[in-house]
Amino acid sequence: MGSVSLKVGDGTAKFKRTSYCSWSSALNLLMLFSVITTNLFALYAFTSSPKTQSLNYQQHKNISLISEHVKMILREIDLSQKKLAQMEKELIGYESIDLSRPNIADELKVFLEHHSLPLGKDSRSGITEMVASVGHSCEKSGELLSEYMRYKVDGTCPDDWSVGQNLILRGCEPLPRRRCFVKTMPKEGLQPLPTSLWKNVSEKIYSWSGLGCKNLGCLNVKKLNRDCAGCFDIVKGYETQKYANPRGKNDFLIDDVLAMGNGGIRVGFDIGGGSGTFAARMFERGVTVVTATLNVDAPFNEFIAARGLFPLYLSLDHRFPFYDNVFDLVHAANGLDVGGRAEKLEFLMFDIDRILRAGGLLWLDNFYCSNDDKKMTLTRLIERFGYKKLKWVVGEKINGAGKSEVYLSAVLQKPVRV
């Protein structure tokens, strides 16, 4: 409690309180000010700024909507990418063959199933199972592939080599292996080398199934392709003069080409070599040549083998089964004309370059230039590789219809690259 003082003399009496009353009043005023201020802010919040609150709420709502749209767009992009990847697999054929489909041959299932290694993971390669090697495009020819794989295990294989070749021409390469015995053909009358190079044998040693002609006489009157017109007549036909007596400036002599190799030509590869005459001429000069060919309209592989030469049953769409830089010479005629887009020729040329050693020779033999575009495409491609042109001849020939055709013959030397 505060004290009271009384003053006498002037007739008045005054009461004075201490600081308690002063502080209490100040506190009350402060509280009153706080209440008023709080009410004013509340009134401002609820009455004076409805637009600001609404704007904040609308912005929050818009952000949520945008976020949902972004999520939906990302889901659509992801789904589209998955669909495109699946379409690409189906178009190119990388998808594995669906063994659950109906009418799939049991032998095809057995061959394509993965088999675990009996001793577990291989320490050198890191593989844990054996995977069958089969062409990716086989998926596109599933019915034909199943037909090829229908046979009796341990029995005789069906006479269906043409089915297998049809699969190869469709890109189904390599073919799956089979567990059946191929039909044997008696190989009577075979001659020893070098007599076999230029001597015919009995026509009974060849398989004529699936072919239009059933004898050599029929084949020799047909133009099977640009590099094989009468090419099975190795006794009296032009094959006996080929590469020895030229008929035009585009026909190079083997001895002249070998001289360009400075004595370093020992092994060669012939692409689309017809009946094997190029390999025969090279054999006579101590050069071993592998001839890549299929049996399109004729028994090319059997005929080449009967001459004592090495046939390779392979399409030009298949990567050559040789290591890098192993051949001294690659010979290619119109088998180099793979058709289609320029990129397809590029893939082939790069594979040829891969197997040809540095300093080796690429012999283009009478390549048919059906138009200027094809000639320019091949010429520019050769220039990209940087090959040295040892010989380059562009000439014309008159075909059977009396029209002039342009051919390119060249001998090119592969450079040393670092």
UniProtKB/TrEMBL annotation:
<dbReference type="GO" id="GO:0008168">
    <property type="term" value="F:methyltransferase activity"/>
</dbReference>
<keyword id="KW-0325">Glycoprotein</keyword>
<keyword id="KW-0812">Transmembrane</keyword>
<dbReference type="GO" id="GO:0032259">
    <property type="term" value="P:methylation"/>
</dbReference>
<keyword id="KW-0735">Signal-anchor</keyword>
<comment type="similarity">
    <text>Belongs to the methyltransferase superfamily.</text>
</comment>
<dbReference type="InterPro" id="IPR004159">
    <property type="entry name" value="Put_SAM_MeTrfase"/>
</dbReference>
<feature type="transmembrane region" description="Helical">
    <location>
        <begin position="26"/>
        <end position="46"/>
    </location>
</feature>
<dbReference type="GO" id="GO:0012505">
    <property type="term" value="C:endomembrane system"/>
</dbReference>
<keyword id="KW-0808">Transferase</keyword>
<keyword id="KW-0489">Methyltransferase</keyword>
<dbReference type="InterPro" id="IPR053223">
    <property type="entry name" value="Prob_Methyltransferase"/>
</dbReference>
<keyword id="KW-1133">Transmembrane helix</keyword>
<dbReference type="Pfam" id="PF03141">
    <property type="entry name" value="Methyltransf_29"/>
</dbReference>
<dbReference type="GO" id="GO:0016020">
    <property type="term" value="C:membrane"/>
</dbReference>
<protein>
    <submittedName>
        <fullName>Methyltransferase</fullName>
    </submittedName>
</protein>
<keyword id="KW-0472">Membrane</keyword>
<dbReference type="InterPro" id="IPR029063">
    <property type="entry name" value="SAM-dependent_MTases_sf"/>
</dbReference>
